[in-house]
Specification:
Strand content: 15-25%
Oligomer: single chain
Bound molecules: 5'-O-[(R)-(carboxyoxy)(hydroxy)phosphoryl]adenosine, zinc ion
Distance between the termini: 36 Å
Shape: globular
Protein name: tRNA N6-adenosine threonylcarbamoyltransferase
CATH topology of the largest domain: Nucleotidyltransferase, domain 5
Cofactor: Fe(2+)
Order of helices and strands: EEEHHEHEHEEEHHHHEHEHH
Catalytic activity: L-threonylcarbamoyladenylate + adenosine(37) in tRNA = N(6)-L-threonylcarbamoyladenosine(37) in tRNA + AMP + H(+)
CATH architecture of the largest domain: 2-Layer Sandwich
Radius of gyration: 21 Å
Structural class: alpha/beta
EC number: 2.3.1.234
Strand order of the largest sheet: 3-2-1-4-5
CATH superfamily of the largest domain: ATPase, nucleotide binding domain
Number of helices: 11
Pfam families: TsaD (PF00814)
Length: 346
């Protein structure tokens, strides 16, 4: 069947990415090429993403990554129907690089440009990978975001909960840092937790029991620091016990917060056909304990738990291309060439 093909560009944080994705008339899609260059090595010495380094690295890598995506997909720019580039939220230097490149290609080829919200990319990925139909719930847990979002349709989202302080990935990263574990902290904390006693420390579970669906993780980080400071010298076993207890507190917190979200969804859509779904996205979705927690939560509430493949949960350009395709397929207008990047864009 006839299809649309989009070039996607993602540069909002520390991954430079380009992709070519097709969408068919029946609404299904196909990844033609998916290229991601992680800048992890360039930032790890600093224990976090350095915006200036990130922006420069995007400038250096992006053109050849786009070329590579086109070659791998066997597509020329002439055969592309549109360009989709992340316009926000994120680090402004990187956003400028990606969006300006998208504008330049759109201008040179005369093809439409879609300035995509990065969060919309995360939100719609499960429709490409799992063919989900609206509405569904999405939990985004990354280094920069912790949000529970109702996805009602293309361009139709409602944020039900967000963090009032640290993002969940940030809590993992900060916890790792104060325990002397390497960056990025998430994988290191998970690894250490595997041999730890999760019941040794009773860390706080912020906002548990509250009706609103927000999250808070900074108190947890403080409790971890106090626990570590209370032991001298700190052994590897102590670190493992702290990490295991930390993950347990997070599991309990999510179980309560997301559980309320699932109930609210059932109350708002009592007549929805088929099984309701919870989608997880973001780098923290790699965490096995988090997945087990969400899986059992979904089982208990009669939800389908959807976790797209890891490389599509973390930052990538496929999701940006796909969001552009969904906008195009729904008849939403493309953006004019004076569209501006936005570091903040809820
Ligand atoms: O989505 P992502 O790759 O990048 C952005 O934040 O945009 O997410 C990175 C975050 C980091 O905070 C990292 O520590 C966390 O995801 N992370 C994990 C795990 N793997 C990555 N957190 C917990 N457990 C993991 N296995
Ligand atoms: Zn992201």
């Amino acid at each position: 069947s006839a299809k649309l093909r989009i070039l996607g560009i993602e540069t909002s944080c520390d991954e430079t990415a380009a992709a070519v994705v097709s969408r068919f008339e029946d609404g299904t899609g196909r990844i033609e090429a998916d290229v991601v260059l992680s800048q992890l090595d360039e930032h790890s010495a600093y224990g976090g993403v350095v915006p200036e380094i990130a922006a420069r690295a995007h400038v250096e890598a992006l053109d050849s990554l786009i070329e590579e995506a086109l070659v791998r997909s066997g597509t020329t720019l002439d055969e592309i129907d549109a360009i989709a580039a992340t316009a926000g939220p994120g680090l402004i230097g990187g956003l400028i690089v990606g969006l300006m490149t998208g504008k330049a290609i759109a201008h040179a080829t005369g093809k439409p440009l879609y300035a995509v919200n990065h969060l919309e990319g995360h939100a719609l990925t499960a429709r490409l990978t799992d063919g989900l139909s609206f509405p569904y719930l999405m939990l985004l847990v990354s280094g920069g975001h912790t949000q529970l979002v109702l996805v009602r349709g293309v361009g139709d989202y409602e944020r039900w909960g967000t963090t009032i302080d640290d993002a969940l990935g940030e809590a993992f990263d900060k916890t790792a840092k104060l325990l002397g574990l390497p960056y990025p902290g998430g994988p290191a904390v998970e690894k250490a937790a595997a041999s730890g006693d999760a019941k040794r420390f009773n860390f706080p579970r912020p906002l548990v029991g509250e009706a609103r669906l927000d999250f808070s993780f900074s108190g947890l980080k403080t409790a971890v620091r106090q626990a570590a400071e209370g032991i001298a010298p700190v052994t590897d076993q102590d670190i493992s016990d702290i990490c295991a207890s930390f993950q347990r507190a997070i599991s309990r917190t999510l179980d309560d917060r997301i559980g309320r979200g699932l109930q609210r969804f059932l109350a708002e859509f009592p007549d929805r056909e088929g099984m309701p779904a919870l989608v997880v996205a973001g780098g923290v979705a790699a965490n096995q304990e988090l997945r087990r927690t969400l899986q059992s939560l979904c089982d208990r509430h009669g939800f389908r738990f959807v976790a797209p493949p890891h490389h599509l949960c973390t930052d990538n350009a496929v999701m940006i291309a796909w969001a552009g395709l969904e906008r195009m397929g729904t008849g939403l207008p493309s953006d004019t060439l004076d569209v501006q990047p936005r570091s903040r864009w809820p």
